[in-house]
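Q: A small favour: would you put together sequence and structure tokens for a protein?
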Amino acid sequence: MRYDDCEPAAFLNVDLVVDSVVPLQPFIDALGDGPVVLYHGKFGRQWRAVLEFALPGGPEGAIQEFIKLLTRLPRRARSLWDQASRRTFDIGIQGGPGRQPLELQVSAEAAGAAAALGAGIQVTVYAPARVSPQQRKRRAT
């Protein structure tokens, strides 16, 4: 794959991944319409919910939005969160070509708030995305 065949590295989104021994629908419902539900169902022997915020500007804003929602959960939904076996903010990055770094920052405040809620932070880097011939032509002009 040639460098000019790929998009540059970019921030994509932040997923909230929650695993539990019980269905998580009441938890999902309590979060409201803000995050997009990518998946809720069985995952091995557990239930998994994957929700996403794709906000411009990097992971900080999306993590802060999730934290706002999580700190306001009603008792039943908070109990599901507290009993979950996995609570992870997953920062999605589209890999890119070349040596140009992509720098993303999560503030100490956001990382501390995530930790206070019992959540970890993970980074997932996806393979570079190819540029179509049409996109390559547009770049050249």
User: Anything to note?
Assistant: Residues 59-71 form the longest helix (13 residues).
